[in-house]
Design brief:
mainly beta, binds dtdp-4-keto-L-rhamnose, Jelly Rolls, 6-stranded antiparallel sheet
Length: 182
């Protein structure tokens, strides 16, 4: 399992080692020991999520506030997505900065976002299947959403034209007005 820290170093991109043979392919999609060594601590996951999106769907930017904050380990098993992590930890030197990575069924990469990041992605193909593990359970009352097109964040989404977004995301908060992490 190769990994690299992105420009916001708490966000880690994993590239599993795949073994191909006549039958097809095998790879370890999660290894607790390798994961903990890469992120530098013991992380316990409590929930797995799976979504399917048409092309040009943007989901996000989402997070849950403490005490239900979630770290997320995200990947794509069908199609492709551009995944974005926004640092919303006020005391962080990279507060308000974002990083992105291409995740696809082909590259099998996974992105780790610890608690304290807002998360979103855009699907780049129809029927993009997005799988992720979270470190806490879903808690509707703790859920928050920041506008995907917030001008202060200025995220470069690889979309042409208007993306498809949920009604919830269309009324999301601006970054300036969002409740963030201390
Ligand atoms: C996230 C979530 C949603 N739901 C329900 C609530 C709602 O009726 C339906 C669809 O929820 P949403 O519209 O919030 O789904 P979605 O927009 O896909 O939300 C997800 O977006 C990505 C970017 C994330 O980072 C995730 O943490 C999550 O917020 O599923 C659960 O039951 N459990 C969950 O964990």
């Amino acid at each position: 399992m190769k990994f690299e820290r992105l420009a916001i170093p708490d966000v880690v991109l994993f590239e599993p080692k795949a073994f191909s043979d006549d039958r097809g392919l095998f790879f370890e999609s999660f290894n607790q020991r390798a994961f903990d060594a890469a992120v530098g601590g013991r992380v316990a996951f409590l929930q797995d999520n799976h979504s399917v999106s048409r092309k040009n769907v943007i989901r996000g930017l989402h997070y849950q506030l403490p005490p239900h904050a979630q770290g997320k380990l995200v990947r794509v098993v069908r199609g492709a997505a551009y995944d974005v992590a926004v640092d919303i930890r006020r005391s962080s030197p990279t507060f308000g900065k974002w990083v992105g990575a291409l995740l696809s069924a082909e590259n099998r990469c996974q992105l780790w976002l610890p608690a304290g990041f807002a998360h979103g992605f855009v699907s780049l193909e129809d029927d993009t299947e997005f799988l992720y593990k979270t470190t806490d359970f879903y808690d509707q009352g703790s859920e928050r959403s920041i506008r995907w097109d917030d001008p202060d964040l200025a995220i470069h989404w690889p979309v042409s034209g208007a993306p498809i977004i949920s009604s919830k995301d269309s009324t999301a908060s601006s970054f300036r007005q969002a409740e963030v992490f201390d």
